[in-house]
Amino acid sequence: MISKKQYPFSSLKSLLKEQVGTLEEIEKYVLEVLKNKYDRGEKALIEGNVDKLKTKLKKRNEEIIDKIKSITLARSLKGSKNKQEPLSPGENSESEKEIYNFRGDSKLRSEGGKTYSRKELVLEGLENRTIKRIRERKKKIEKIEKTKSNQTSAYSETASRFFSKVSKKLLTQDSFKELEKNLIKANLDYSPTGYISVILFTTLISIIVGGFLFLFFLFFNIEATVPFVTRVTETLNVRLLKVFWLLFLVPIGTFLIMYIYPSLEKKAAEFKIDAELPFATIHMAAISGSMINPIKIFEILILTKEYKALNKEFTKLLNEINIYGSDFVNALKNTAKNTSSKKLSELLNGLATTINSGGNLPDFFGKRSETLLFDYRIQREKSAKAAETFMDIYISIVIAAPMILMLLLMMMKISGLGLSASVSMITVMMILGVTVINIIFLTFLHLKKQS
Questions:
Q1: What share of the chain is helix, strand, coil (3-state, %, to 5)?
Q2: Whether 332 contacts 348, CB under 8 Å
């Protein structure tokens, strides 16, 4: 038997207890920030304390990893001459060094007693290159995610610093309450106050941009021929009447686009959820047949990582249970209210009703999956027929119409019917026209494809 002094897990146990205490302190600070409304200075002080605790947590984690690596329970095989009991790092012997001190010694011992050098245990060739490639890929992904989050947070923090008070007042109005609902259903990483602050800050920047554009076009023209930028020959009053609308169009357009954006994202999320839902429901029916806890069904679907759009909704459902403390039925109803998909909302509400009434979950999921799959097939058939129609429209508008129009313009130019543009100018106009039509058509097809 191994005595307590020899047992290598005593120091590891104390480190783990210290880690639990540190995590409880972090949780306490976070709950204080969520429950109470602190000013900016108090929040900064609390965040500094949390950062110190996180640093301490990381250091202790490294110590725990080192402790675990220095421990082994190796013993010789049965029938071996040198039968040994597991040794602890506290015993001073050569065999103890070979077993426990993995970092300092050049020899390691296997279970059968055979020793290997570190060079023999190092990965070589294809294995080593594969591991390096995986690590580099993970580092690149983490770097990209950090860069994106830092840029987004810096911009939103700057916007909130200037417009947070105005945003809170605007949230009380009905038009911005609808924006708040769309923002929650679109699963955007913004709070309602933060997003309205971003809208106002971006609109302020667009006013400055609109002013620069106004001043530029007040004195200069952009043409299709060389030189592309020329000075204006008209009087200042006439030119002012032609370009003054830029001062209003740019900020108003920016504000409307950012105001509408959450509703567009909500629709896009709805299309993605509806496309994944029939297959996810079939998966749910198969899992529920094992008669496990219904909460585990959603946990399993999240772990599969096959349903990217639904994962966000199911994560919200589990957060309602694990973080906010709701029971499963209320969590289903709350998630149904905050989802962008009507079909998913009906599924979650139906599941809540089935659980309350004591219904059969496999039968519920099976019948609902059949209905959703039937709707999906009908939608696919409609999309195929619509694609055929769009192909005919594309051929007639983008291919045949420009050729006929080009011939007509050339005939008008040759016959001298009043067309003053040169041949090169007509060619440039046609190329630009076809390009614009293609962009509009591709955008429309992309939106239609999502639906």
A1: 75, 5, 20
A2: yes
Which residue matches tokens 């109005």?
A: 173
β-partners of residue 117 are 107
Amino acid at 29: Y
User: For residues 343 and 349, what is the distance between their CA atoms, to the nearest angstrom?
Assistant: 10
CB 108 within 8 A of CB 102: yes
The answer to whether the bond into 227 is cis (omega within 30° of 0) is yes
pLDDT digits (tens, 9 = 90+) for 208-226: 999 999 998 888 888 767 7
- Measure the CA–CA gap between 187 and 312, rounded to whole angstroms: 8
Q: Which residue's entry shows tokens 């709350």?
A: 334
Q: Spell out the residues 6+ positions from residue 172 whose beta carbon is closer than 8 angstroms to its own.
A: none
Mean pLDDT in residue range 83-98: 43
C-alpha span between 26 and 34 (Å, rounded)? 13
State percent of the chain over pLDDT 70. Answer: 77
CB atoms within 10 A of CB 57: 16
Question: How far, in Å, CA of 316 to CA of 338, rounded?
Answer: 9
DSSP per residue over 163-190, as a string?
HHHHHHHHTTSHHHHHHHHHHHHTT-S-
Q: pTM higher than 0.90 for the full model?
A: no
Beta bridge partners of 222: 229
How far, in Å, are 6, 16, 17, 68, 321 from residue 65 at the CA level? 19, 11, 15, 5, 32
**Residue 275: is its pLDDT beyond 80?**
yes
Which H, E and C letters describe 291-336, residue by residue? CCCHHHHHHHHHHHCCCHHHHHHHHHHHHHHHCCCCCHHHHHHHHH
Q: How far, in Å, CA of 43 to CA of 37, rounded?
A: 9
Q: Inform me whether the pLDDT recorded for 353 exceeds 90.
A: yes
- Cα gap 64→52, rounded to integer Å: 18
Give the list of residues 6+ apart from residue 195 with CB closer than 8 angstroms, or none.
Answer: 179, 183, 188, 262
Distance CA(435)–CA(224), nearest Å, equals 15
User: Treating both helix axes as pointing N-terminal to C-terminal, what angle do 308-322 and 246-288 enclose, rounded to 10 degrees?
Assistant: 80
Convert the pLDDT of each residue in 373-391 to its tens digit: 999 899 888 888 888 888 8
Those residues whose C-beta lies under 8 Å from the C-beta of residue 397, and which sit 6 or more positions away, are 437, 441
Asked if 74 contacts 99 with a C-beta cutoff of 8 angstroms, the reply is yes
The stretch 13-39 carries a mean pLDDT of: 76
